[in-house]
Design a protein that fits this description.
- Helices cover 34% and strands 15% of the residues.
- By secondary structure, it is of the alpha/beta class.
- It has a four-stranded mixed β-sheet, covered by helices on one side. A two-stranded antiparallel ribbon has the order 5-6.
- The chain is globular, with a radius of gyration of 13 Å.
Length: 114
């Protein structure tokens, strides 16, 4: 089972890195652990990848890969939460939006990027 998870993680990393660049996709253990919890009592869940998008095209590409492969995506906006809202699904993808200039790129009502 672990081997399948490892292959899936590598596949996601390669697929996303290919379209947005490797420097925007993190898969190292320290980063994944850091994104696996918040200040709530929600249980730790380690994501497969953390993505640091630079623009709306990056976001769109990540969401397209995630949707195609049925991988859950968790959005981190401020990085501070006490309700478990930014704890990812185990094996999912975290998109870190802590760069404020990206917020206007999302249509939050339709949950799409434009």
């Amino acid at each position: 089972m672990k081997e399948n998870g490892k292959r899936r993680k590598e596949f996601l990393f390669e697929a996303i890195s290919k379209v947005i660049g490797k420097w925007k996709v993190r898969k190292d253990e320290a980063t994944l652990v850091a994104y696996g919890f918040d200040s709530s009592i929600a249980p730790f869940q380690k994501p497969s990848l953390v993505v640091l998008p630079e623009n709306r095209d990056d976001v769109r590409e990540v969401l397209m890969v995630a949707n195609k492969k049925k991988v859950p995506v968790t959005v981190m906006a401020g990085g501070v939460n006490i309700g478990g809202m930014c704890v990812p699904s185990e094996g999912g993808i975290v998109i870190d939006f802590r760069f404020r200039h990206l917020f206007h790129l999302m249509d939050w009502r339709e949950c799409t990027s434009s």
